[in-house]
Specification:
Layout (H helix, E strand, L loop, with lengths): L4 E2 L5 E3 L1 H12 L5 H4 L1 H4 L13 H15 L3 H16 L21 H17 L4 H18 L4 H5 L5 H10 L3 H13 L3 H6 L16 H7 L2 H6 L9 H14 L21 E2 H18 L3 H16 L11 E2 L34 H5 L3 H7 L2 E4 L2 E4 L5 E7 L2 E9 L6 E19 L6 E4 L2 E3 L4 E19 L2 E5 L5 E5 L2 E5 L3 E6 L1 E3 L2 E3 L5 E6 L5 E3 L8 E4 L15 E9 L26 E7 L15
Parallel strand pairs: 6-9
Antiparallel strand pairs: 1-5, 2-7, 3-4, 5-6, 7-8, 8-9, 9-12, 10-11, 10-12, 13-14, 14-15, 15-23, 16-19, 17-18, 20-22, 21-22, 22-23
Helix pairs in contact: 4-5, 4-6, 4-18, 6-7, 6-9, 7-9, 7-10, 9-10, 12-15, 15-16
């Protein structure tokens, strides 16, 4: 069904800066939620009395691969405790979710899709032989349940997410009833093809709707390709491309995502993007590459992973935002009644434990671990590169032990070395992805086409090094707002602004927000009201240190800095909103002499200006 399959965490390990990023996540909020957050610590999934729906499955979806990628024995044991409780809680008829028999009819089955997906992920990580039967019985139960109680709510709008565990189980147990269940879900579920055929969500509205919910859109990008497997052997990503083209045209942001706070919010750089939307869109891109082998999905995955994901987390990953803005000069609690977000609260862009709503607290955990697991994938005749980041693969091909190491600081540098070692001669294909965001590329000195796949099929023996050299250009991109963003390769750059952090400690819903589980406001300490002297790249200086600090995505550690000629202008604040930059400046006329401002990778910023006017 899938053209490519992921390797297990026993085979594929992160290295370099990416391993450090996972270590930070493990030491931060993600690795400690089960100790302090009641919705995970005391969940009904493990016999407690707190939330028994999506939060434990969301958290495990990232915590499990995180634990196994790092070979962290403590976290593996803690994950197993949850899995054991979930498995032991399964009813005789296969029902898996934590509710009473009387509550079943009103239980939103979205949580079952999630937990079955998590269980199959756990099976791939651990090899626990109990899992396929647990998932098979739960899906059998689901097939009978939805005959009497058709899916509704989130299960209705996200029906296709259940295809992930269905297809994974079908690979191990190819029974026709599984495909019948998938077809029933498709019949009962929301049809995004019909929604986009007559799309009414081109203009943002201050109204919450299933059809314009940003996380639903991110998930649904893979709906058409997954569903197409029910009609043939090859996945078709045509609708995925069309859907994304509409999202970008009417709601695209400078960092390669679409806005949504909480529903689609247009092009404005002061509207937000929900963190769940970022991680779920990343996962959709990973699935789409695995389904189709189309490298365009890898380019899009990298842009989110290197920009939007780290920018909405604190560098130490003890806090996160619900919404990030591309022009975000401060993160302070807004005045009641004057909230810039469409349907989100006044604290949605604070950094902390649970700003606005707790779904992102649980769900942000999947971003980096699943990205790391998707870097290299297994093909029918070898190994393919999805995203480029430092990693090491140890596997077996044709009976021979094979190691592939990706040695690089990409995206902060353009040299990528693939070091291939075999214990004995082995014939297989190594398919390199040439990032489409580079201006030129060379493989061992020979030109390669950006945005393409290059397959090296040979008999590999001993140690070989394949060098991918990437050239990138600094370019200004005109945004629909009339402002400009600055890109260089897969990285978007934003103005570096000095920061003052204010700690907010308090108690809410039985949780004491005491450091490090507290919330934070962030205010600017340096000037941010600038306009670009030109937009042709003239005069922009590039400083590459080649060194990545202990916190890879922190302002003070930025491995690349662009010195950009600018003028100071009168930008101003948005009417009625404290510390929110105007959507468009009051004036782009210079009010000071030509000077230079530092722009750093967007992912390294906590507050920022990303879309900038050209000086008049």
């Amino acid at each position: 069904m899938f053209k490519l399959r992921p390797f297990t965490p026993a085979e594929l390990k992160p290295a370099g800066w990416l391993r450090r990023e996972l270590e930070i996540q493990a030491d931060g909020l993600s690795g400690n939620l089960d100790k302090i957050w009641p919705d995970v610590r005391d969940s009904r999934w493990i016999g407690g009395d707190r939330e028994g729906w999506e939060r434990v499955p969301y958290w495990l979806d990232g915590f499990i691969p995180l634990a196994y990628l790092l070979d962290d024995r403590d976290k593996i044991a803690r994950a197993k405790r949850y899995i054991d409780a979930i498995v032991s809680g399964q009813k005789e008829d296969g029902w898996l979710c934590p509710c009473t028999d009387e509550e079943r009819a009103g239980y939103d089955m979205w949580a079952l899709y999630l937990i079955d997906k998590v269980l199959m992920l756990y099976y791939d990580c651990s090899g626990d032989e109990r899992i396929p039967d647990v998932v098979r019985r739960s899906l059998k139960n689901l097939a009978g349940h939805i005959e009497a109680h058709p899916i509704f709510g989130w299960a209705h709008s996200r029906w296709f997410e259940c295809l992930i565990p269905i297809f994974r189980l079908y690979e191990t147990e190819p029974e026709e009833w599984l495909l019948d269940l998938a077809r029933t879900l498709r019949k009962q579920g929301m049809h995004y093809e019909e929604i986009y055929a007559d799309w009414k969500y081109k203009i943002p509205e201050r109204k919450w709707q299933w059809e314009s919910h940003v996380v639903n859109q991110g998930m649904a990008l893979k709906e058409g390709a997954l569903a197409s497997l029910l009609d043939g052997d090859e996945a078709d990503d045509f609708f995925s491309e069309y859907m994304l083209s509409q999202l970008f045209e009417y709601h695209g942001t400078a960092v390669g995502h679409f806005s949504g706070d909480e529903c689609l919010a247009g092009h404005s750089p002061i509207q937000g993007t929900e963190l769940c939307g970022v991680t779920e869109t990343m996962y959709s891109y990973e699935v789409l590459f695995a389904l189709t082998g189309n490298p365009i999905w890898s380019d899009r995955l990298e842009k989110l992973a290197f920009n939007a994901l780290p920018a909405t987390l604190t560098p130490d990953m003890w806090g996160h935002q619900y919404d990030q803005m591309t022009n975000q000069v401060a993160c302070v609690k807004l005045d009641p009644g004057h909230v810039v977000f469409l349907t989100n609260s006044a604290e949605s862009h604070l950094y902390g434990l649970e700003p606005n709503y707790g779904c992102c607290t649980a769900n942000f955990n999947q971003g980096w671990p699943k990205f790391a697991l998707s870097l290299l994938m297994r093909t029918q005749d070898g190994i393919a590169v999805n995203a480029v980041a430092p990693c090491r693969l140890e596997t077996e091909i044709g009976g021979a032990a094979v190691t592939v190491e990706c040695d690089t600081i990409y995206p902060f540098g353009g040299e990528v070395n693939y070091i291939v070692e075999t214990a004995s001669p082995a014939e297989f294909a190594l398919t390199l992805r040439i990032p489409g965001t580079c201006s030129a590329a060379f493989v061992d000195g020979e030109p390669a086409e950006p945005g393409s796949l290059l397959t090296l099929k040979r008999v590999w023996e001993g140690k070989s090094v394949v060098t991918l050299s990437l050239r990138v250009e600094t370019k200004f991109v005109r945004r629909p707002t009339g402002l400009y963003s600055l890109e260089r390769g897969p990285l978007v750059y934003a103005l570096k602004i000095g920061e003052e952090w204010t700690k907010l400690e308090y108690e809410r819903n039985g949780v004491e927000r005491i450091f490090p589980y507290c919330d934070w406001e962030v205010r600017p300490t340096t000037e941010w009201q600038f306009a670009l002297a030109s937009v042709d790249g003239e005069g922009v200086g590039v400083r590459e240190t080649g060194e990545i600090g202990d916190l890879p995505f922190a302002p003070e550690n930025a491995p690349v800095v662009l010195d950009v000629p600018v003028y100071r202008i009168n930008w101003g604040y948005e009417n009625e909103y404290r510390m929110i930059a105007r959507e468009k400046p009051l004036s782009a006329l210079p009010i000071g002499p030509l000077t230079t401002a530092q722009f750093i990778p967007y992912g390294c910023t906590n507050i920022r200006i990303t879309e900038v006017p050209k000086a008049e």
